[in-house]
Specification:
There is one protein chain. By secondary structure, the protein is α/β, with parallel strands linked by helices. The chain is about 30% helix and about 15% strand. The chain has one domain: Alkaline Phosphatase, subunit A. The strands form five sheets. It has an eight-stranded mixed β-sheet, sandwiched between helices. Strands 2-3 form a two-stranded antiparallel ribbon. Helix 5 runs antiparallel to helix 6 and helix 8 packs parallel to helix 9. The chain is globular, with a radius of gyration of 22 Å. The termini are far apart. Keywords: Membrane, Transmembrane, Transmembrane helix. It comes from Aquisphaera giovannonii. This is DUF1501 domain-containing protein.
Length: about 450
């Protein structure tokens, strides 16, 4: 085979191995937010009950979401629901925030300063205590099933409001692989970046641009004349669409969004010179460039041992990045159209174990939200005195997912048919939390 048929390989799979299928998908979900519901302040469960905007109008608002994912399950008692001086409070101390009456755990000092922009939900509740199952549910809105693979929420939105004529991917995961597109197909898979401080792998043509384009043309001719004429026309069409979008991204001037060198050293220091901190800075740059959903992953939150020390170290990375991201978005005039969500798959047991750690505990945990129409400076719900149960205003995972859809202007109840014709809604039930918006 000639050199001209040796197509430049693009993409990576979850293990960092280059693959043609894994690079760039058309992942546009140019969603937009709606204001809070009027009247009694109750947000209906179905989008048809809301003031619906046309898809083109939604895209013009350029709503976006940045998910800060604390992989492993962050302890609520060492983050945003501390209980110092109680039986299960441990050694964690509470600090005051910029909002009188709201205290959070020591070590989250920068986050405390921007609490006026943040809404805390302290009454999240669920049943899944397994990492894989709970992570799947918090990303897709569905419990895992043996018969179907549900899509990442961002992929569902892309399918609903996607704008195909966009050079960059609309769904990006920084720091590792996330949930996939499921039954929506390969064209909506998230684009994974392992290291925020260097350009994505395999996005620079290894030959001159003209030669690169000739190779793509040769690939197209080979597929159409061979596989395409022997029963593979549909597969060729899908593959061609992926490569067309890939080539557009590789050759686009918008790729400069992935280069952090254009940011001031002072701002990069404020985010923190860590993988997570620089990932958050990259997330802001991508949203600014038009990317709609970015997930930034922080690992190590499965604190079965030495929970206080381990969370303290993790907070040292996440706290400045979280706070600076909110400030940075606000200074760029982007916070109102960017929903920022801090969460993990579940919480930790109130009772400290024999290894000075906390175990898996989905019954009560917390989530923090900012921007995107969220009314900051408030706490929604509460755990009881010893942290063993929800005291008031329980919020389920479907409720949270419906709230994210509401904030982004997405039809949470829209049904999409699977390849076998089974209709599946974006979110499995739930009602948006009215108090979050207003």
């Amino acid at each position: 085979m000639t050199d001209e048929s040796s197509i430049v390989r693009v993409g990576m799979n979850g293990q960092g191995v280059v693959s043609r299928r894994g690079f760039i998908r058309t992942m546009s979900w140019g969603a937009a937010g709606l204001g809070a519901a009027a009247g009694a302040g109750v947000i209906p469960a179905t989008f048809t009950d809301l003031m619906v905007l046309k898809a083109d109008e939604l895209r013009k608002r350029q709503m976006a979401c940045i998910l800060l994912w604390m992989a492993g399950g962050p302890s609520q008692l060492e983050t945003f629901d501390p209980k110092p001086g109680t039986e299960h409070g441990g050694t964690t101390k509470a600090i005051e925030t910029s909002v009188p009456g709201i205290s959070i755990a020591e070590g989250w000092n920068q986050t405390a300063k921007v609490m006026k922009e943040i809404a805390l939900v302290r009454s999240m509740t669920n049943r899944e205590a397994n990492h894989q199952r709970a992570s799947y549910q918090l990303h897709t809105g569905y419990a895992p099933s043996a018969t179907i693979k549900h899509p990442h929420l961002g992929c569902s939105v892309a399918a609903q409001l996607g704008e195909s004529k966009f050079d960059l991917p609309h769904i990006v995961s920084i720091g590792g692989a996330t949930a996939g597109a499921g039954f929506l197909g390969a064209s909506l898979e998230p684009f994974v970046i392992q290291n925020a401080e260097r350009p994505p792998d395999n996005t620079q043509p290894r030959v001159a641009v003209d030669r690169f384009k000739r190779r793509l043309g040769l690939l197209n001719n080979l597929e159409v004349a061979g596989f395409g004429t022997n029963g593979g026309a549909d597969r060729v069409k899908e593959h061609r669409a992926v490569y067309t979008q890939t080539a557009r991204m590789v050759l686009s001037p918008e790729m400069k969004a992935f280069d952090l060198e254009g940011e001031s050293p002072a701002l990069r220091d404020a985010y923190g010179r860590t993988a997570f901190g620089q990932g958050c800075l990259l997330a802001r740059r991508l949203v600014q460039a038009g990317v709609t959903f970015v997930e930034v992953r922080s690992n190590g939150w499965d604190t079965h041992q030495e929970v206080n020390d381990r969370v303290g170290k993790l907070a040292g990375q996440v706290d400045p990045a979280f706070a600076t991201l909110i400030r940075d978005l606000k200074e760029h005039g982007m916070l109102g159209r960017t929903l920022v969500v801090w969460m993990g798959e579940f919480g930790r047991t109130p009772k400290i174990n024999a290894n000075a750690g906390r175990d898996h505990f989905p019954r009560v945990f917390n989530v923090a939200l900012a921007g995107g129409g969220v009314r900051g400076g408030q706490v929604i719900g509460a755990s009881n005195a010893d942290g063993t149960d929800v005291k008031d205003r329980p919020v389920s995972v479907p409720d949270l997912m419906a709230s994210l859809c509401h904030g982004l202007g997405v039809n949470a109840q829209k049904e999409v048919d699977t390849p076998i014709g089974r209709p599946i809604k974006v979110v499995d039930g739930g009602k948006a939390v009215a108090e979050l918006f207003g």
